[in-house]
Amino acid sequence: MSSPSGSPPVPGVVSRIAAGRPVRAVWLNELGALTFRIECGGDGTEYVKTGPGEFAAEADRLAWASRYTPVPRVLGYGSDWLHTAGLPGESAVHPHWVARPQQAARAIGAGLRMLHDRLPVASCPWVRTDFEDAPPVDRLVVCHGDACAPNTLIDADGRFCGHVDLGALGVADRWADLAVATLSLGWNYPGLREEDLLEAYGIEPDAIRIDYYRRSWQTPDHLGG
Fold this sequence. Notes:
There is one protein chain. By secondary structure, this protein is of the alpha+beta class. It has 2 domains: about 10-85, 2-Layer Sandwich (Phosphorylase Kinase, domain 1), CATH 3.30.200; about 90-225, Aminoglycoside 3'-phosphotransferase, Chain: A, domain 2. It is built from 8 helices and 10 strands. The strands form 3 sheets. A 5-stranded antiparallel sheet has the order 1-2-3-5-4, sandwiched between helices. A 3-stranded antiparallel sheet has the order 6-8-9. The chain starts with 11 loop residues before the first helix and ends with a helix.
């Protein structure tokens, strides 16, 4: 996930939802989906994700997870768009937090621990089935599914305050999230110790599970959808 270059054209659905309010493109993911931010004045912000994606499935996951943990509220969706209300805080890769990498990493770790502790495995409708020949499960949790640093939000005091992009949420070993989260530190905060995130989560590194889930994450099939 990265900031889009230039000023991409605003799709008609985004213009319709914005209804004259200021709009700008803020995120581009590896599948080519663009997210637009709508400024709503005193009412905060809204976001519209457009392009390729399983937006009905993501809307269902957000609605379910919102009962237990801070995630965006769904305002509407279609076959190629998802409209959500903004949450307080900034992405962990906002320049303010990139300049404070250790604090950001600890917020990411604490946020994942909260997510894993709060979401109930027994009632989660989705199970990750894309892991073949995985190591024995350490702890089964409801995983975020895309636990890269940009998907954690941090408040002004440096604390976790929400997660976004839950389209791959589902039950799996917690290392499916932790391996990806620590991997993403190197992309966003070069030189930062992975242990900062794991210490905040409350766990020691597990080299075998980290290696397996990182390799699984980086396969072409996974990156393609």
